Amino acid sequence: MAALSDPRAFLSAQEKRAQQMKAMGIEETDINTKDILAGNAGEGEKTGKKGSKNKKSDEPKKEEELKFENINLEYLRNDKGFQKARRKQEKELETLRKRQAKEKSAIQKHQCTSVEKAVKGKDKTEVINDGGVKKLVTEQMTQWSEMVERHRREKWALQKQQATEQQDALLKLMENLQAAQMKQLEARHEKDLKEMNTRQAKISVEVMKEVMNDKTLKTKGDKDRRLREKKQNNTKKFMDERKHAQIKQAKDKDKLQAKHEKQKQELIKEINNLLEMYKNEEIEYELSNKTEFFV
């Protein structure tokens, strides 16, 4: 009705209200202001009746705390991409085993044939005292021992290479998963801040409506003074709330970063333990008697 009876006065009031809201840091696009009309006598009563509900709705909602998966070695090994790479490594190791087994079988067969030829037609005593047989057996033992040593070193070299490849793949996978967790946390923080700003803007508008419809404030000066007081109180409250939220979010981020670094160090330690095991096997072999033969 105000817009119809006195359009110029209505537009002036609208512009003034927009300026007041802008001074409080509120954009008209942030909230629905269509129900804020100057001179609406019944609005004060409606606001009074709904005050308790609005106050309750203005309270910040308690969001459920984000819980992230613990990214450890067991968790990473269940990744489909890693399992595919691991199957490829197992195939490489199996190929090496088959090649070595084939070589062992061939040498074993050749040595058996050579011994059979050397002892053919000789009795036990002659074989024992035969220098040619002794030399042949010694050469075969050397050949067999060298082959076994070479096979072991080939296996250890491949296992160490695969362990290093696993470390690189697991670390990269861990970094990707950790980055996704951090992105999820940052998105949650952004959502929380946006909701807080919207809620604070709504509170500011409700305060403005309350002052505008307060019948105990007779003059424009009284209303402006009351609005300034409430604005100052809310500004301090809102700034404290934002500061507290920023501190909490910074702590959440630091906590997640520390957790991620711990996970990374534990993964590196486990891979290094595996490499150390292969190294110890080599050391033990170097200290042992390397002469081997098959029976």
TrEMBL record:
Residues 1-65, 219-262 are annotated as: Disordered. The keyword Coiled coil applies. The keyword Coiled coil applies. Residues 160-199 form a coiled coil. Residues 55-65 have a biased composition (Basic and acidic residues). It comes from the Eukaryota. Keywords: Coiled coil. InterPro entries: PLC-beta_C_sf. This is 1-phosphatidylinositol 4,5-bisphosphate phosphodiesterase. It comes from Melanaphis sacchari. The lineage of its organism: Eukaryota, Metazoa, Ecdysozoa, Arthropoda, Hexapoda. The gene is norpA_11.
